[in-house]
Write a structure and sequence with these properties.
This protein is of the alpha+beta class. Helices cover 22% and strands 24% of the residues. It has one domain (11-58, 78-240). A hairpin with a 2-residue loop joins β6 and β7. The longest helix has 22 residues, at 219-240.
Amino acid sequence: MNLPPYDPPPRRNTGLIVALSVGLAVVLVGGGVAGAAYYVNASGSAPAAQPSTAPSFPTTAPWQSGEPSEEPSQEPTAEPEPTAAPDESGTRFAHTEFQDWRFEFQGVRYSAKKVGGWTYDTCDPVDARGVLAGNKCQRAIQIAYTAYRGHVKAVQVMMEFPTASVARATAKKLQKQAGNSVNTRRDMTHADFAYGMIRTNPSQNYVVATVVTADRSAKAKAEDFHLYLHAYAASRLLLRDVTVTT
C-alpha cells in the first residue's frame, strides 16, 4: 500500500477538498454558471487570438521585480503542506485571508508564494469600465503570486456583491467585455510572456478573476497551474460565509 508523502490533512479540510472539486467543475465545465478564459495581449508582441484589445490596468506605483534567470524546477523545492481554509464567516473581506498557496492531493501538487496583497474598501480601484459600480460591487481584494522561481506569475482580483444572483450577472457582463473591465496589477505579471490568460467565474456572492502569465520555459506548466489556482480561490469563496458543524 502506497502512503501519501504528507500527513493526512485535518478533518476540517474535507470541506475545502469538496469545494475545490466543485470549483474545478465550475471552471472546467461551467457548473451551470458562466465562466470564461481570455488571452492577455503583451505590449509589443503579436496579438493573441482573443480579445483584440488588452485589459486595462491601474496606475498605482509598480512593485519592482526582476526577471528570473533560472529554469523552473519540475516540482516546488520545499515540501508544501495543504493550505487549510480558516473560518472566515462573519469577517470583513480582506487579502490577508489568502497567504502562500500550497496544494497537494492525490498526486496533484502546486505551490505559489504570495508577493503582494491589497484590500479595497470599495471596488473603484479595480473597476475599469463601470461594470462593477453598475452592479453594486461592495468591496474587493487583489493578490499577487509567483511560482516556479518567478517563471509563472499570477494576479487574482476577488469582488464581493450583495447576492449570488448579482455576482452571476456581473460575471456574464465581465465576460462579454473580454476581461477588459477589471483592473489588475500589471507590474506583478510578466511584461513579455509565452502564456497569458484571464479566467473569470462567479462563486456565491463573489466574482474571481485570475490572470496568469508565464515565460517560455514555464509555458507547459502554466495552464494547469492556472486552473487549480483559480479553482482554489473559487472554492475558498464557496465556503467563506458558510459555517460547517459536525
